[in-house]
Amino acid sequence: MTSGKAKLKRSGMIFSQVPFLPSTKEQTLNVIKLLEGRKGYLADLGSGDGRLVFAASSMGFRCTGFEINSILLAYSRSKAWWRGVPHTDIHFVKQDFWKVSFIRICISSILH
Q1: Confidence check: pLDDT of 15 > 70
Q2: Over the range 13-44, which residues count as b (16 or more CB within 10 Å of their CB) and which as e?
Q3: Any one cellular component term from GO for this entry (predicted)?
Q4: What is the CATH number of the domain that holds 45?
């Protein structure tokens, strides 16, 4: 029998103490379906590579991705820069989502 850590290493990447298990296309599409017809602000808690943030932004949402992994945060920010997405539309923050104030957030999604 394999340990939980061995399973994580096979199914995702471990860059820090928290494993990176990217959302599947199906999971992302399910969230997009839930957002249809809505407007506002979306927070992705544990945003990883930013795939949900970019998908929601393309639907008109203003988004913030909260991520504690510096490598994934740099990747997401670089991706936003290369795509020319304004900081007013997408923002990635290095912060533990357990310590975030959600006062201005209307729709929140946790995929991980």
Answers
A1: no
A2: eeeeeebbebbeeeebeebeeebeeeeeebbb
A3: mitochondrion
A4: 3.40.50.150
